[in-house]
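Suppose you are handed only these lines of text.
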Amino acid sequence: MKILVLNSGSSTLKTSLYEIATAPHDDPPAAVWEGLIEWQGSCADIRTSSPLGVRSRNRIQINSRKQVIEKLLSDLWTGAAPLLKAPSEIGVVGHRIVHGGEEFSEPAIVTPRLKDVVRRMSEFAPLHNPYGLEGIEIIEEILSGAPQVAVFDTAFHRTLPESASVYAGPYEWLARGIRRYGFHGINHQYCAERAARLLGRDLRSLKLVTCHLGNGCSLAAVRGGRSVDTTMGFTPLEGLMMGTRAGSIDPGILIYLMRQNHLTTDQLDELLNKKSGLAGVSGISNDMRQIVSAMNSGNSRAKLAFDIFIHRLTSLIGSMVTVLGGIDALVFTAGIGENSAEVRSATCATLEFLGARLDFTKNSQAPRDGDISASDSRIRILVIRAQEDWAIARACWDLGHARASSF
Ligand code: ADP
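From them, the structure of the protein bound to adenosine-5'-diphosphate can be written out as follows.
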C-alpha cells in the first residue's frame, strides 16, 4: 500500500510517501519520497527528495496554498523520474492533527463529523488545527476519492487519570473543555513502543519517561504503554522551558503584567510563546546549539538559559518518576534530545540518585536509536529518533488492516 503522510503547520508542510508491501516491520523503513514546503511571505520554497538525494528545488510565488501543495505533490507523478504512474496509486493519506479534543482517542477515518471536531478544536490549537484541516481539504480536491486518516497528537494522553488532567481551578472549567490535553502524543507513543522493542521487553511491564525535546518540549510518564501524566496541558505552552516558550510560570506574573503594564492578550501571547524560553533568557537564540556554544565561550546569560532548561527538565522528570512510582527507562527524542550530548549528560548527572549512569562514549556518539547507559546504570537511558511521519503511516496501515479493507 502506498501511504502519503502530511504534517501541516503554519510555517512548513512536511510530507512523505511510504510503501508497505506486507505487514510493516517493527524497524521504521525510510520513506520512498519526502517533500517540504517552507511558507515565506508571498513565496514558497519547495523541495523534494528520495533516498537517492534531492529530486527538485523550486521557489514559487504563492497564488494559493492549494496550487503550491499541488506543485509539490505532482513531483510524484510527473518530473524526470516519476515514482507513481498516477495520483490514484496513493491508497490512503494520513494527516497529523494536533488537537482531537475529547472525541478522538484513536486514529480515525476523515468524515464530515471529524472535520467539524478539528475545526472546533482550532480554538484551542490556532497555530496547528486550521492547517491540518486545510491539508485534508486540499487533498480532497487533489486526490478526490483517496481515503484520509487523521492521527491526533492529543490522543495518546486520553488515558490520563482525572487527577492529572483536571486543573485545580473552578470545576466549571472542565465542562468548558479547560483541562490538560497534552501534546506530542504521536511521538511519545512511538518512543514508548520503540523503547520496549530496543529493550527486548514487553511494553505492558515498563515504566518509561519519554522526553520530547525539540522546538517544543514535553515529557510523558508512560506506564504499561499508557500515558499517565504529561507536562504540556490545555495548550502546548505548559511545562518545560522551550526554544521561545516559557513553559510553566507563576500565573500571578501575568496578572501583575496586565495590572502594571496594561498588556493585551496578544502582547501576553507574544511574550510567552515567542519572546521567552532559551531565546528570552539568553538574548541569543532559541537554538540549543548556539546556547551551548555561547555558554562554552563564557556567555553568562547562555549559561543561565542552559541551567534553567536542565533545572526544569530534571525537576519535571522527577515529577513523572514519582507519578510512575519508579522508572525502567528514560528516553531522549527530538532535535535536542537526539543531538545534544551536553543536555543528556547534564540531565543524567542530576538523576544519578535514581541510578542513572551514562556511557560517555555512547552519549557523545549520539546513536539514532540506541542505549547510551553505562552497564552499571540502574535504569536504561535511550536515544530514539522521532519518526512522526512513519508513526502516522503505520497508524494508517493498522487502521486499514483492522477494517480488513486495506482501503
Ligand atoms: P520541531 O519541534 O520543530 O520538530 P526539532 O525536533 O527538529 O523541532 O528540534 C529542533 C531543535 O533541535 C533546534 O531548535 C535545536 O535547538 C535542536 N538541535 C538540533 N540539532 C542539534 C544539535 N546538534 N545539538 C543541539 N541541539 C540541536
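What can we learn from it? Residues 300-324 form the longest helix (25 residues). The chain has a mean pLDDT of 94.
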